């Protein structure tokens, strides 16, 4: 972001101190005559993950709004496609966008979709900057980058924390949906907690993996998991599934709940209300982080959408940010292959989550934070407690 644009943002948002981390001044570069580029945005447009997809769309669009609808100086045509909820629907979305000549792809919420489109993206040699789904099996690919996380990191961050916090006579019940991402979360959690620690020795209770559960979907599995009378529950759900799981769990268990932060992100808190109080989560972002980039981002996001930004919106905003920088590096006539190579040349990213950078597996090396759901006036909020670890 150049100095002139930063000053425009300050004037528009009423934000002060936005000086550091604005990047180099590119005012002198002729960008007015640069050709338009097409970017394909893949998100679920219906079902239990729709709210996450909406956040991803909003985050990417906000970056465009703050940068004159341009990336790397090029006017952007943002094309959208519905990923659906299966590998087949995800592949159809990618195929449709590739036929329209996109320079790059972004988005993707569901890990099963991300795994299913891997080969299509690699064969097309078009970069995909994923802003949510990030199973560990994607770490050897060349054209897929992630601005979110790798799922085992959320487990690792909480495993390290709970290993020291849980009493010696405590016991944790682990409850997970039977999907692509859950084994990553469990592996990371056990790796840091200690796989042979008696406090987590019980088998994982796996539940239905539906993204649109009913009012009794999890009841029998919860009863089974609670049979050994755990002192705490560690779980992994998001969106509509998180709402139903917590409601059904709270009918039978009043103790501490720990999870990757997706459990309490976005509209989940609005639907859970008091049932969410006290839940502690680990995540790579909190809307109340006190850094310049987050003050600008969160202020602009609240002003435009009238809600607090989520990690999904933040990661999508950063996906636009890294595309902006990579396209700028390619010069005036970018190709997908040039953009992909340029992504590998990016250094530190000044992000609302704090400074991060891509590591060798093309995922962020970043900080993870502990948050707790507390009441903020009439609403529930994920309040930042402390920093847990730097992972990646």
From TrEMBL:
Q: Which UniProt keywords apply?
A: Signal
Kindly name one Pfam family recorded for this protein. Answer: Peripla_BP_6
Q: Where is the signal peptide?
A: 1-20
Write down the superkingdom of origin: Bacteria
PROSITE patterns per the record?
A: PROKAR_LIPOPROTEIN
Is the Signal keyword given for this protein? yes
**InterPro entries the record matches:** BCAA_transport, Leu-bd, Peripla_BP_I
Q: Where is the Leucine-binding protein domain?
A: 36-378
Family from the record: Belongs to the leucine-binding protein family.
Return the protein name.
Answer: Branched-chain amino acid transport system substrate-binding protein
């Amino acid at each position: 972001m150049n100095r002139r644009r930063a000053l425009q943002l300050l004037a528009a948002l009423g934000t002060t101190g936005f000086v550091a981390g604005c990047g180099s001044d590119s005012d002198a570069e002729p960008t007015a005559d640069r050709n338009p580029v097409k970017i394909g945005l893949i998100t679920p447009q219906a079902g239990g993950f729709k709210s996450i997809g909406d956040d991803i769309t909003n985050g990417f669009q906000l970056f465009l709004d703050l940068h004159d609808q341009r990336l790397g100086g090029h006017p952007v045509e943002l094309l959208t496609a519905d990923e659906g909820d299966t590998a087949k629907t995800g592949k159809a979305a990618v195929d449709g966008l590739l036929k329209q000549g996109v320079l790059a792809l972004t988005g993707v919420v569901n890990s099963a979709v991300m795994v299913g489109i891997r080969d299509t993206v690699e064969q097309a040699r078009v970069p995909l900057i994923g802003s949510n789904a990030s199973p560990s099996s994607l770490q050897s690919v060349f054209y897929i980058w992630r601005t979110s996380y790798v799922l085992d990191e959320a487990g690792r961050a909480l495993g390290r924390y709970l290993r020291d916090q849980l009493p010696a006579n405590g016991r944790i019940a682990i409850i997970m949906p039977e999907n692509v991402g859950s084994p990553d979360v469990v592996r990371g959690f056990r790796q840091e907690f200690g796989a042979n620690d008696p406090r987590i020795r019980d088998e994982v209770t796996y539940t239905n993996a539906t993204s649109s559960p009913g009012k009794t979907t999890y009841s029998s599995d919860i009863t089974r998991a609670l049979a050994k009378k755990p002192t705490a529950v560690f779980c992994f759900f998001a969106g509509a599934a998180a709402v139903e799981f917590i409601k059904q769990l709270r009918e039978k268990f009043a103790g501490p709940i720990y999870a990757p932060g997706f459990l309490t992100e976005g509209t989940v808190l609005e639907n859970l209300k008091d049932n969410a109080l006290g839940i502690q989560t680990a995540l790579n972002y909190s809307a109340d982080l006190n850094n310049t980039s987050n003050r600008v981002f969160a202020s602009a996001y609240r002003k435009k959408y009238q809600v607090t930004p989520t990690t999904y919106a933040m990661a999508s905003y950063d996906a636009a940010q890294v595309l902006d920088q990579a396209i700028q590096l390619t010069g005036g006539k970018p190709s997908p292959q040039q953009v992909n190579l340029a992504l590998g040349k990016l250094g530190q990213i000044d992000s609302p989550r704090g400074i991060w950078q891509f590591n060798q597996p093309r995922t962020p090396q970043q900080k993870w934070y502990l948050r707790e759901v507390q009441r903020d006036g009439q609403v529930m909020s994920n309040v930042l407690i402390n920093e847990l670890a730097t992972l990646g």
